[in-house]
UniProtKB/TrEMBL annotation:
It comes from Streptosporangium canum. The record marks 167 as: Important for catalysis. InterPro entries: Aminoacid_DH-like_N_sf (IPR046346), Glu/Leu/Phe/Val/Trp_DH (IPR006095), Glu/Leu/Phe/Val/Trp_DH_C (IPR006096), Glu/Leu/Phe/Val/Trp_DH_dimer (IPR006097), Glu/Leu/Phe/Val_DH_AS (IPR033524), Glu_DH (IPR014362), Glu_Leu_Phe_Val_DH (IPR050724), NAD(P)-bd_dom_sf (IPR036291). It holds the Pfam family ELFV_dehydrog_N. Residues 204-445 form the Glutamate/phenylalanine/leucine/valine/L-tryptophan dehydrogenase C-terminal domain. It catalyses: L-glutamate + NADP(+) + H2O = 2-oxoglutarate + NH4(+) + NADPH + H(+). Catalyzes the reversible oxidative deamination of glutamate to alpha-ketoglutarate and ammonia. This is Glutamate dehydrogenase. Keywords: NAD, Nucleotide-binding, Oxidoreductase. The keyword Oxidoreductase applies.
């Protein structure tokens, strides 16, 4: 239920952004959490902070023409939504996936504002991408696309302005091509203009692993708060991309047994525990579909398509693929099968009904804004190293990440407690992130 004033703000968001359903969902979730904050802080309403936060500072849409290996010309659409720069330069990844349209970019950019606030680091919120599908494209085609994309994007970004990174479909290969083109056009070796770079040209240790590792650290904290740990627990992780692979790696190091993971073609069930080397070989090196993992793994592993991954019984679930992948029904099934903790590696992977089911059942539910913030936090550390021409060791960087995730966990619980919602990580994350941004906006005047 929305507070009366928030309800009219939400109606306005629906009216001004027709058809952008993912953006509506992301706004509603935040508005549902911050009602109690407005009671204590009338100054936010007086300065129309919420109305301002819901309106991006700038939205850029552009044409991306490119040529495939056969010489055929393709036209894609590029986006960058620079949502809020009260805390620092816009910061957030680029997504290349055929489903990308303005509503997806805005939902991701909006979430990013609060997530970045929650990290306590000086970064604003933004997001971008394209409806380009890198699947099945050669390296050369991906390179030509990235070069064309950057040929427009370069004029909008910069280390003090807007700093993109990766997301779905944008990994180190794409970041390399994008940075290469930026460097060529601007004649500047401006390392801090993009994060997620390779180690040989300004990347930071642990950035590749950070989102997945960070999510595992966050879930570890939630389990500790319940008086337990990962040790010997059955875990299911959706996806098999960047976030999922490193979530699996860290969960295994913490003693959990990951029995299933997925991609868009189906899921693999491997009761002995996922063989991570094989998974990396199949998905990252050879870029195959997940069925190939099951074929090579042999007995004990099965590939299942056309069914929900969430039917696999587990004690911990880590949705790490895409938005709205856990429905209310999936959540009910997970609860019935004994799930006690959910950590969102992906952005908004649980529907509002799913979240309600988990919270009513007493499942520890870590929303993406908090649980996957390790990626952007480590990106901010990459910017810090770039600015000081320094590079830290893997061990030191991982330690920093773990401390950041522990702090975020603590801040979520503390804010939830302060507003009378103990144990509610969703409310805690939204309130803490919102207050940081709102306070900065108040101080900066009418911007
Ligand atoms: P990747 O492209 O590396 O991997 C995405 C994975 O999810 C793949 O296994 C992909 O399967 C699967 N997937 C994507 N879309 C769908 C879909 N519509 N249905 C089913 N499966 C799908 O992306 P990331 O791992 O980087 O990102 C995963 C999630 O984590 C996203 O929500 C992203 O926003 C979020 N995130 C990522 C961060 C990062 O640092 N990379 C930081 C914070 C959040 P397939 O290969 O078959 O397409």
């Amino acid at each position: 239920m929305l507070h009366e004033r928030l309800s009219s703000i939400y109606d306005n968001v629906l009216r001004r952004n027709p058809g952008e359903i993912e953006f509506h969902q992301a706004v509603r979730e935040v508005l549902e959490s911050i009602g109690p904050v407005l009671g204590k802080h009338p100054e936010y309403a007086e300065s129309k902070i919420i109305e301002r936060i819901c309106e991006p500072e700038r939205q850029i849409i552009f044409r991306v023409p490119w040529e495939d290996d056969q010489g055929e010309v393709h036209i894609n659409r590029g986006f960058r939504v620079e949502f809020n720069s009260a805390l620092g330069p816009y910061k957030g990844g680029l997504r290349f996936h055929p489903s990308v349209y303005l509503g997806i970019v805005k939902f991701l950019g909006f979430e990013q504002i609060f997530k970045n606030g929650l990290t306590g680091l000086p970064i604003g919120g933004g997001k971008g991408g394209s409806d380009f599908d890198p699947k099945g494209r050669s390296d050369r085609e991906v390179m030509r696309f990235c070069q064309s994309f950057m040929t427009e994007l370069y004029r909008h970004i910069g280390e003090y302005t807007d700093v993109p990174a990766g997301d779905i479909g944008v990994g180190q290969r794409e970041v390399g091509y994008l940075f290469g083109q930026y460097k060529r056009i601007t004649n500047r070796y401006e390392s801090g203009v993009i994060t997620g770079k390779g180690l040989s040209y300004g990347g930071a240790q642990v950035r590749t692993e950070a989102t997945g590792y960070g999510c595992a650290f966050f879930v570890d904290e939630m389990l500790k708060a319940r008086g337990t740990s990962f040790d010997g627990r059955r875990v299911v992780v959706s996806g098999s991309g960047n976030v999922a692979v490193y979530a699996i790696e860290k969960v295994q190091q913490l003693g959990g047994v990951v029995v299933a993971c997925s991609d868009s073609s189906g899921y693999v069930l491997d009761e002995k525990g996922i063989d991570l080397d094989l998974l990396k070989q199949v998905k990252q090196v050879e870029r195959h579909r997940l069925g190939v993992y099951a074929e090579r793994r042999g007995e004990g592993a099965a590939f299942v398509s056309g069914q929900s991954l969430w039917e696999v019984p587990c004690e911990v679930a880590m949705p790490s693929a895409t938005q709205n992948e856990i429905t209310g029904r999936d959540a009910e099934l997970l609860v019935r099968n004994g799930c006690v903790a959910v950590g969102e590696g992906a952005n908004m992977p649980t529907t509002p009904e799913g979240i309600r089911v988990f919270q009513e059942a007493g499942v520890s539910f870590g929303p993406g804004k908090a649980a996957n913030a390790g990626g952007v936090a480590t990106s901010a550390l990459e910017m810090q190293q770039n600015a000081s021409r320094d590079s830290w060791t893997f061990e030191f960087s991982e330690q920093r990440l773990q401390t950041i995730m522990r702090d975020i966990h603590g801040r979520c619980l503390q804010s939830a407690d302060e507003y009378g919602l103990p144990g509610n990580y969703v409310a805690g994350a939204n309130i803490d992130g919102f207050k940081r941004v709102a306070d900065a906006m108040l101080s900066l005047g009418l911007i």
